[in-house]
Every structure is written in C-alpha cells, then in structure tokens.
Amino acid sequence: LATGLLHSGNREDILITKNGGTSWNSSFYELSMSPPQYLNSIDLFSTRGIAVGNNGHIVRSEDSGNSWNIINKSSGLLRDVKFVTVDTVIAVGENLIVRSVDGGASWTWTNQTGSFKNVTCVNNLVYIGINGNTMLKSVDHGTTFTTLNLPFNYQGVLYLVNKNTLLAAGTDGVYVSKNDGITWGKYILPS
C-alpha cells in the first residue's frame, strides 16, 4: 500500500499492489473541495489498515487495504499513524495525539501543544517524536506519556528497533539509544 501528496493537492488516494510493485491500482479515492487534501501515512496490522492525513482525515480498512471507509473528517494535520496492537492505534500531528482502542473504529482526540512528527512502537512501548529537543514515551500502550529531554535537536525521523534500541534523526547526525532514551550516542553522517 502507498499514499501521499499527489500533484493536484486536492485528492486523497491509496494505491495497492498485489504483484510486488509491478502495477498499482487505486483502492481508495476521494476528491476534496478545499485543497490541500492528502493522506500522509498508512499502517497495517493483520488485515486492518489505517491511513491519516490533512484536515484530520482518518480512513480504515478491514480487508488488507482492498477497500476503505472514512472514519473522521475534522480539522488538524495528522502526520503519522502506528498500530500498537491489533486494537490500539495512535496517530500524531500538529498539536494532536489521537488514540483508538477498537482497531480504529472510534478515536479519542487530545489537543496537546507540539509539532508531533511521528510515532513508533514495539509491544507496549510507544515513542512520539516532537520537533525540538524532547520526545514523549509511553510504557502503557500510549495511555499516558512522560517527556524525555534529548541532548540533540530532533529532526522528524524516529524508529524503535526493539524494546531497548531507539534511532532518531537529529539536525547534525543520527542518534541511537540502547537504554530506553536515557543516554544517546551520535553517528556522524558524511555530507
């Protein structure tokens, strides 16, 4: 599955391939009257799929992305979405953290100050990246969060490799923590 901003900027589209990327077809398509309209991120867990985007749009699939239903249209920019479990899903965006505990059928919206860039998770651990020098960490499937202060300026890419190892992009290199974000090592990248 793939999604993103199309050149016209007023069309949401989810593409699907069933032959390793040789050909792609549209599995979800919607025109909007108020551009820009686009989906930013998509995630799958088993046969469930969730995609999120601009204007708070959330779409959901129960059949591995073959068909989609619109769950929410409101306001706000959602940038990323991840399944924590088959039932628990977290999406983040501009001043928003949204959470579902029923596989994306319904959502709880939390207005929270921050430019939340992405979310990553393994088992019950959830990390949310925020522009600047902090990130959020949850050890209870995203129910509650604590703030981690970073020794670098976070730049928008975050990946939890396993329950202890976290990778984050900084403005001056890639950082790795092997102890739950307590200490960080820096990898300097060639220019």
Please tell me about this protein's structure:
The chain is mainly β and 191 residues long. 0% of the residues lie in helices and 58% in strands. The chain has no helices and 16 strands. It has strands spanning 2-3, 11-16, 25-31, 39-45, 48-53, 58-61, 69-72, 78-83, 89-100, 108-122, 125-130, 132-138, 146-160, 166-170, 173-177, 185-187. The strands form 3 sheets. It has a 9-stranded antiparallel β-sheet, with no helix packed on it. It has a 4-stranded antiparallel β-sheet with strand order 4-5-6-7, with no helix packed on it. A 3-stranded antiparallel β-sheet has the order 1-2-3, with no helix packed on it. β14 and β15 (173-177) form a beta hairpin. It is globular and about 45 Å long. 36% of the residues are buried.
